Target: Phosphomannomutase
Amino acid sequence: MPDLSGIVKAYDIRGVVGDQLDAALVRDFGAAFALLIKPEAPAVVIGHDMRDSSPGLAEAFADGVTSQGLDVVSIGLASTDQLYFASGSLNLPGAMFTASHNPAKYNGIKMCRAGASPVGQDTGLAEIRDTVEQGVPAFDGQRGTVSERDVLGDYAAYLRNLVDLSGSRPLKIVVDAGNGMGGHTVPTVFEGLPIEIVPMYFELDGTFPNHEANPLDPANIVDLQAKVREVGADAGLAFDGDADRCFVVDERGEPVSPSAITALVAVRELAKEPGGTIIHNLITSKGVPEIVSEHGGNPVRTRVGHSFIKAEMARTGAIFGGEHSAHYYFRDFWRADTGMLAALHVLAALGEQNGPLSALTQDFSRYAASGEINSTVSDQVARMIAVKDAYADKPGVEIDELDGLTVQLPGGAWFNLRPSNTEPLLRLNVEAADRAAVEALTAEVLAIVRA
Model:
């Protein structure tokens, strides 16, 4: 039996095309997915990004699905949140071919049940892996059919219906699509809005010739920052490769933290639904639950990862959720993540008043943060224990282990140390009142981690 544990991840399938992932294997994944969801749905909706390998792999997956008697609705080129829209609006399970911001040699499959409900290790992905490893059983009934459907216009209209920009003042916005799927979706979503788009790298190119399509790496937003300042834009937006994440810079070209965006969007959603629940993961700024509470909302803290966010949203009926990684989840978008909808909220908030984005977001940026710092370690458990022991007996310290190790210090500073599930790494996030305090606490913790 093949061992697929190296490419079947916690939330998706991802590997090097031609080495770990080829058409024959992807066909088997399609057939196994069809077997999983056959009792629930008559068809599967499939979309793909702009990578050279994506159309062929999507076609192979469709062949596997139809070989088990289910139909396929192909939406062609799509962002991941456009695929979620199709899954939600058509009430069909879906599969998206993308490796997000990974280099060109990679590809992958993100799958969901009808209504964009995620398929992860605990919700079907392990079962799909087992079926493929053991050999997909043949189906002797009638094959399914493949039809094509363009949902881009419907997706754009749906988003614009959720955020009213009709009263916005004119805005000039630089958008860096990173040669990814934002170049496909942005022109249609923003058509007819009082927003002048200054496009950067809108040409779909899965080799990412200009920079890696990962806006959380500061090196990848340098061009955007320079262009915002050069043209005197009101803001800049950067999308990742499959355009489900969106990163924001203000009129000065300065990054706006995803925690500040989470707080801003939360306040707007709470204005529509007072008293609503807002989800935040445990390494977003503590300013997020503070601001949510101040606006009458109910903040709920979760582990890091979209499966945990979506599960808590379903359990609590939350209206919105945000992560430090610029993933934003909306109940009105089938609890799925869409950076595009978050971007529209930011622009609507900006356009409703006359001040600059830096002044608007200042109210939502209360603390200094380190960002995620990775350390390669030989023994994750031993280093975690060493850090815990160093702080456990200090007066006024509170420790919890919801996800890794979170240490709250007297005076408000805190840090979280989490092990990577796939690499010998520990990931550190620190927050404190100011930059000097962040740097001091970061150095203190890293001295133990890297001892």
Q: What stands out?
A: The CA atoms of residues 128 and 322 lie 29 Å apart. The chain has a mean pLDDT of 96.
